[in-house]
Model the fold of this input.
Amino acid sequence: MDTFGQRLRHLRKELHLTQVELGDVIGISGAGIAKLEADGTTTTEAAKRLICSTYHVSYAWLTEGIGEMWTPRDLDDLVDKYTEGWPEFARAIMKGFVRLPDDEWQRVIEMVDKIKKEGLPG
Done:
């Protein structure tokens, strides 16, 4: 994602928010969010910082595309939110998965494929 607008849209989709819902948080209309996402306008520094503090997003990622969208603690919060009510071991597994680097995912895929093909041991 090369532009602020693309990153903003990606963030909004990740959070399952409408343009109006996001706009309500930073005090602009849904149409204003649409313009931001299309890189048709800019927003204030205060609005960018409000987005970051409200949704625990990296300012460097949102504004410049540098680094990860979430910090590790923010990832834990998101996993906790979406796995509420799950057994603790399952939540711990999910927290591990969200931190996997891209090159490790191939190993996970291979293990899952093997389990699907051969079944679980035992």
Summary: The helical segments are 4-14, 19-26, 30-37, 45-55, 59-64, 72-82, 88-98, 102-118.
